[in-house]
């Protein structure tokens, strides 16, 4: 069954893969690393234009490491979770200092970089350098759970699941199989509305054979997407937008931008604590330099 599954996933991917710019021949390891960090919890359609701008503006880690933090945060725009941008900046400096400006090709070396976790390290090693290592994101986890175990659990991948997915890797075309699993989860085996009738694994899918059981109430609760409007994240994003649009802003301008005093205070002090903003001697605020 495993051999057939490998073949079906690879054949499906070669026919149905999206034409994403970072999959184009000639894409550098640095550009792949950028795409993976930017795409975390962010739709591809929002990532593409920013990624294109960054690869032209900062084509190497050394170029990016020389940029100012305020410059980086302005270029990040509204991709969300701007701490990722600062961690990327730290990462570029480490690549420049420790690896002579070359993104390392081994998982352990990638994991030693600031802001690079298991998924990103494995994705760069696998998708750019061709290392035959398991890469498990939410999409891969969902396909594995449904096709192999007949269920779907929420949450993040564990070491055990890395080993389970690793056991499926073929000796040949392992990276293609890995990206194929991910693409299958993104396009067909989706969380809420899977398109089972066009799935290449339908005939051997344990979840389909079990009658497509739905997640429990507890699992649905864990999967529920948190609203954004009116939250502290929304307040932080509003203040960040204000900071990106000016060299410095006054407390009065921030007060107008977000009227809820308690929430505004939490958001502003959170940005200061996270190094995403700094207060000047005159009491105004700006992006960090």
TrEMBL record:
Cofactor(s) this protein requires: [4Fe-4S] cluster
Pfam families: HHH (PF00633), HhH-GPD (PF00730)
GO MF term list: 4 iron, 4 sulfur cluster binding; 8-oxo-7,8-dihydroguanine DNA N-glycosylase activity; adenine/guanine mispair binding; metal ion binding; oxidized purine DNA binding; purine-specific mismatch base pair DNA N-glycosylase activity
Family: Belongs to the Nth/MutY family.
UniProt cross-references to InterPro entries, sorted A to Z: DNA_glycosylase, Endonuclease3_FeS-loop_motif, HhH-GPD_domain, HhH_base_excis_C, HhH_motif, MIG/MutY
Catalytic reactions on record: Hydrolyzes free adenine bases from 7,8-dihydro-8-oxoguanine:adenine mismatched double-stranded DNA, leaving an apurinic site
A Gene Ontology BP annotation from the UniProt entry: base-excision repair
Name recorded for this polypeptide: Adenine DNA glycosylase
Sequence ranges assigned to domain HhH-GPD in this UniProt record: 38-187
Keywords in alphabetical order: 4Fe-4S, DNA damage, DNA repair, Glycosidase, Hydrolase, Iron, Iron-sulfur, Metal-binding
EC number of the protein: 3.2.2.31
